[in-house]
């Protein structure tokens, strides 16, 4: 009954009728527990009945009924006051009107004819429905129309044409803009969209819906899209930025993906700046994916851009993804890698053997035998043999491939010593190497020299120091030992760290073990591989930028078994080397100053979209004097003139600069550092393309729309009846608003007090006249 009254009050208030509504009702809020009150009432009743019996024959018959009634009322008044009768009066509603915001999706995916009439697009239907809803909202509500693609803006729906549809769709930004913070009369959001969200992960949109709920703005999605069949031919590659050694054969691979086409022949071309190199012909089946690979052998060091392209097919959604570029940086000096091992184990032994076999890697290892004896091995003897150890006498002859050192000082004891390496790998129980001074040098080496620090078996210390912990992308808590299998994290192959023919090359590999529970830290960690434990998964390979360099954590013991597979897994025998060699080459291709180099220019990404700001990072060795800000010349393939950009310091990091090119036209670009030395890596390249996601991802995301409705407190509306939609939303606003009331004790009035005192006085007077019976 109370709920119905509340709804009536809010409904009348929303229609402006509050001034004609003098409704109030009485509520009871006892001051004492009900059992006690009943006991007091029983005692009073018994006393009053006794008085009735005692007064018989004493009080004259004509006066007795009046006296008994007055005694009953006078005695009941305290009992009534203990029940605390309270008047509840509704208050006038806050100023203003309830708000209904209509969010209209104006991204390119809405320009698809998949609704009732084939000639009518999603956008046409959405715009028509938005106008109908706006017309059905009466004047007691405030209404607002917001269109959105990558950005949200309030406009008239008739001012939006299909030619202006956006290239991205950001549901999160639209919901955040629509849900206002100060709407005391209530608000609701109508979302007319196909549910496609391609600016960041889908969880951003769900988080925005949760924020809308906290602001009292439920979202009511309306999906006006149906499933469509896309025809498209594309090229994909997981390794678009490669590093190779001079005269080392390099396999350049790509996947040709056909969607929606009948079987058809295609030709794939490999070309370089000076023309076509090789071609291959394929027969693609319907919804088929085939890999094509080319082998090149570079003769001289430098940066080479190779282009892989496939001939288009009639009727495909876009031809912008029929071509991709692969940047191959060729070096003539191998990558300097240092392995610091505190307690030799099979993992480190197999890692040393694997890295030693790569001609593009110059490996050194330092193994602690005891507190004052360290075995330093160079490339010539870097393979570890569990059964062979050097002698124990201090005056023993030193093998040219290894030597016994009393301390690691000569290897990692100075800044100049660390500059020989691009990657430092920390193995098991590495406390002996990580004193405060060494940690400071390592931090400076990573942050300013662009080095990469890799923890090969989880935490390198039994108790992780705070200084090292702040550098790493994960943190550990104590746990019980667990075994798990690894799997590639979602979309991580696009980083280019692992060149793989399969979707998940780690699937089916032997399990790993850990006794700790790692989890990512706040900041910018990126998970490349996880365990296959579902919701309880842990990060296996994680990295994050740290200054100019990167830090990486590889979790789990037992990875050596990946290099020693039984015969039935012969097809996966290269997985171990692909993981480690690919990871190290990927790190060096993105960052790091090589020995002899004073400057390195590197594009932040290989491919930018036209709505993104292109950026390149310049690392300058701290020993190089800079008389003026470095300058970079940017040129576009096909243009006669380039543009000179003055670099800016990247925050407070010494020796790190950024060249900001801004938003660029589509094309292939080359950036070159002006005034560089011949040994510097002074050239980088990248591509700029139009965003194509909105043309390829056209299937409606009804699951995301349902999640948005649930998390915001709204509901998905299946009807296209604008009047019914408006009625449902208005009722939701009415139901969600609390009733503002004023509570006043019924006895807290002057006339009530006078009446009670007058009644008690009258009772006393009557009893006095009858001898105080």
Automatic annotation (TrEMBL):
<keyword id="KW-0472">Membrane</keyword>
<dbReference type="InterPro" id="IPR002035">
    <property type="entry name" value="VWF_A"/>
</dbReference>
<dbReference type="InterPro" id="IPR036465">
    <property type="entry name" value="vWFA_dom_sf"/>
</dbReference>
<feature type="region of interest" description="Disordered">
    <location>
        <begin position="378"/>
        <end position="407"/>
    </location>
</feature>
<dbReference type="InterPro" id="IPR029062">
    <property type="entry name" value="Class_I_gatase-like"/>
</dbReference>
<keyword id="KW-1133">Transmembrane helix</keyword>
<feature type="compositionally biased region" description="Basic and acidic residues">
    <location>
        <begin position="378"/>
        <end position="390"/>
    </location>
</feature>
<keyword id="KW-0812">Transmembrane</keyword>
<feature type="transmembrane region" description="Helical">
    <location>
        <begin position="34"/>
        <end position="53"/>
    </location>
</feature>
<feature type="transmembrane region" description="Helical">
    <location>
        <begin position="65"/>
        <end position="88"/>
    </location>
</feature>
<protein>
    <recommendedName>
        <fullName>VWFA domain-containing protein</fullName>
    </recommendedName>
</protein>
<feature type="domain" description="VWFA">
    <location>
        <begin position="97"/>
        <end position="258"/>
    </location>
</feature>
